[in-house]
Design goal:
There is one protein chain. This protein has 273 residues and is α+β, with helices and mostly antiparallel strands. The chain has a five-stranded mixed beta sheet. A four-stranded antiparallel beta sheet has the order 6-5-8-7, sandwiched between helices. The model is unreliable at 1-9 (pLDDT under 50). It starts with 9 loop residues before the first strand and ends with a helix. The chain has two domains: 10-97 and 249-271, no CATH class; 106-215, Chitinase A, domain 3, CATH 3.10.50. Helix 1 (31-41) packs across helix 8 (261-271), helix 4 crosses helix 5 and helix 6 packs across helix 7 (222-252). The chain contains eight helices and nine strands.
Length: 273
């Protein structure tokens, strides 16, 4: 999500994982577990697999027992670990003090996104998004950003380039819609206009964001806005820290996904009542 563009998650496709759908470090994710989570959450198996990979990454980040040999990860265990880490992240965000003027500002951005779809392989999408990041790094304006991003070959994936603004820490746009929290957190982390984000992952796809403008609040309104937006800013801080932690774990942890993952998950879904 917010990983350095020069670093890549260690994801590889494996012809065989002894029947497992995926392995995250030493943690095994068998088809039955993916099917059970998909059924309990009422989501597609692919979405359940992504959730389990994230939980396993967080479990290994927070558990001194992780990494002690290949093991099947319990959904309850990984979920509890993930919740505990999120609680600590929120505590840290609260202790960082009242919202700053930058956190109370409104911003305008331009971004390019490689859109997620059932036919897009994660690694292919990340490669294209990283190429876009490299292409727009030295863009001289929002117009130049759009031209450079659009010139990157993107094969069969869908690429959208658009300008967005103005929005605050709550991500709400003038028409009442809300932006994804990870997108908002990444936009607010950009220090100054013309700065560009690393590749940012959301449920919609893989984004590269450029800050176009930041409008600070009037000094006379800061205290009131701090009271009104304190919870929103804390949530944004927590999201930013969570995304950085997850990105760092993705880089440090080897993730293997079976080439037959879709078939394995489909078979498990038909066998599991």
């Amino acid at each position: 999500m917010l990983a350095c563009s020069q670093q890549r998650a260690r994801v590889s496709l494996e012809a065989s994982l002894a029947g497992d759908v995926a392995r995250v470090g030493d943690a095994r994710l068998p088809p039955s577990l993916v099917a059970a989570v998909a059924r309990a959450k009422h989501v597609a198996p692919r979405a359940a697999l992504e959730e389990l990979i994230e939980d396993a990454l967080l479990w290994q980040a927070g558990s001194p027992r992780a990494g002690g040999g290949s093991q099947t990860v319990s959904w309850e265990l990984t979920g509890a670990a993930a919740r505990g880490i999120v609680e600590r992240i929120f505590d840290d965000a609260r202790q960082a003090g009242p919202p700053s003027a930058n956190e109370l500002s409104t911003v305008r951005v331009v971004h390019a996104v490689v859109l997620n779809s059932a036919v897009v392989e994660r690694e292919s999408a990340l490669t294209i998004a990283a190429s876009i990041k490299d292409a727009v790094e030295h863009a001289t304006s929002a117009d130049d950003f759009e031209i450079r991003a659009g010139s990157v070959p993107h094969a069969a994936v869908r690429l959208t380039i658009e300008r967005i603004g103005a929005f605050g820490a709550d991500g709400q746009l003038p028409d009442g819609t809300r932006l994804d929290p990870s997108f908002v957190a990444a936009a607010f982390e950009l220090p100054a206009p013309s700065d560009t984000s690393p590749v940012v992952e959301t449920p919609f796809g893989w984004h590269v964001i450029r800050l176009v403008e930041r409008e600070l609040p009037e000094p006379s309104s800061i205290e009131q806005r701090q009271r009104d937006l304190a919870d929103v800013v804390i949530a944004m801080r927590a999201r930013s820290r969570f995304d950085r932690l997850l990105a760092a774990r993705r880089i440090r942890t080897k993730i293997d996904v079976a080439t037959a993952a879709a078939a394995l998950m489909a078979q498990a879904a038909t066998r599991t009542p």
